[in-house]
Amino acid sequence: MNPSALSPDQIELQARARELAAGPVTRRAAEVDRTEQYPWDNVELLKDARLIGMTIPKQYGGQGKGWLDAVLAIEALSSACAVTGRIAVETNMGAISAVMAYGSEEQKKMAADMVLAGDKPAICITEPDAGSDANGMTTRADKKGNRYVLNGRKHWITGGGVSRLHLIFAKVYDEKGTFEGIGGFLAIRDETKGLKITKREPTMGLRGIPEAVIDLEDMDVPPSALVIPPRGLKKGFADLMTAYNSQRVGAATVALGIADGAYRLALDWSEKRHQFGRPINEFQGLQWKLADMSIRLSAARALVYNAARSGEGGFPDMLMAAQAKVFTSESAIQIVNEALQFFGARGYSRELPLERMARDVRMFTIGGGTAEVLRNVVAGALLKKKLPQTRDGWDKA
Ligand SMILES: Cc1cc2nc3c(=O)[nH]c(=O)nc-3n(C[C@H](O)[C@H](O)[C@H](O)COP(=O)(O)OP(=O)(O)OC[C@H]3O[C@@H](n4cnc5c(N)ncnc54)[C@H](O)[C@@H]3O)c2cc1C
Predict the structure, then answer these.
(1) Strand 179-188 vs strand 140-144: parallel, antiparallel, or unpaired?
(2) Model-level pTM?
(3) What is the mean pLDDT of residues 159-181?
(4) Which of 125, 134, 248, 318 has the most CB atoms around its CB within 10 Å?
(5) How many CA atoms lie within 13 Å of 75's alpha carbon, on the beta-carbon side?
C-alpha cells in the first residue's frame, strides 16, 4: 500500500513494530523455533512497545486502535518471527475482540486486564469430530441450578498450556435438557475446575506456541461466564463467526508478513550471490520470479488492508476477510517456496530462516477456516445464499 495512505500515527506504529522485528525479535526467532518454548521475553517487548491489547477500548486500559493498526504491527513482527506475530494477533483480535464486543462490563474489565498484563487468550471451537463443521460440536454446557457444567474435548487450541483466559464454545442445554444454541463461556486455566490441558500437538511449524488438546470434565462455571449467549443455533454461531472475521484478517496478516520477510531475503541474496560470473538476479528467469512475488505481495497486502479497514467500528466484512485469507495464505506459501529456491542448498539448511518460514507459512490455508471452506464462504456471499453443506441441507444442521 502507498505509505501516504497511512496516517502519521500509523506510520509511527509501523516503524516501532519494524524496529522491534529487525532487532530482538529476529535474534530470538530461530531459538524460539528450536526450543519450542513460548517467547515470554517477546511478550514483555510487545507490552513495552504497546503492541499488545491495542484494539482494546481506552476505557478498559487499551488504546482504542483499529484493525489496520493491529495489522501493521502484526505484518512487521511476522516478517521476523511468525510466533510473535501470532501473539500480536491473539492479543488484539480473536477471543479478546469477541469479549469486547459481546461481554458484560465485568467480563470486559477482566479480559482487558489479563491481556494487557501479557496473557494471550485462547479461543476454543475445534473438536476431534467437528473441524470445518463447527456446528457439529458435541461439547455441551448443561444448566444445573445456578451453574453451567461443561463436558467435551477441544483440540488444536492455540496457546493451550500458556494461555490463562479461554473462550470456550459449547452447545447449551437448559435444565430440562432442551437445546438452546451455541454459547461462548469464559474460563481461566488453573482457576476453573475441570479445564485440563491433556496433550501438546507435535506441530510442523509455529513451534513456539503450543497447540493443545483441552478436556472439559464437569467444568463448572456460573452464568456470568457466558459471553456469547445461546440464541438458537444460527444466532450464537453467527456471533461467533462475526467475531472470528478479525482473527481471519489477523491470520492472513501473519502469512503476509512471513511472505514479505522471505521475499526481502531472496531479493537481497539475489544481488549477493554470483554464479556464471554475475549476480543471479541478472538471469531473467529469476527477475520474473521476483516480479511475480512482488505482484502477489502487493495484491495480498491490498486485500488484507482493505479487509481490516472494512471493520472499523465493528468487525471486518465476512466476504473481504475470507477473500483476503484465501488469497494471502495461498500466495504466501508460493512466495516463501520461491524465496527458498533462490538460496539453492542454503535455503534447505536450518541455519537460514527460509526452511522455518516454509514450515510456519504452511499453516495458514488450514487454521481459522481452511482455504476450501473459505471459498464456500466467498461463494455463499456472492450468491447471497447459504450453500447446503450437509447431506440434509444447511437448514437441518
Ligand atoms: C496451527 C493451528 C492452530 C489452530 N488453532 C485453533 C484454535 O486456536 N482454536 C480452534 O478452535 N481451532 C484451531 N485450529 C483448528 C482449525 O480451525 C481447524 O483445523 C480447521 O477449521 C479445519 O478443521 P479440521 O482440521 O478438522 O479439518 P476438516 O474439517 O476435517 O477438513 C479436512 C479437509 O476437508 C476439507 N473440507 C471440509 N469441509 C469442506 C467443504 N464443505 N467443502 C470443501 N472442502 C471441505 C477441508 O478444507 C480440509 O482440506 C487450529 C489449527 C491449526 C493447524
Answers:
(1) unpaired
(2) 0.96
(3) 96
(4) 248
(5) 27
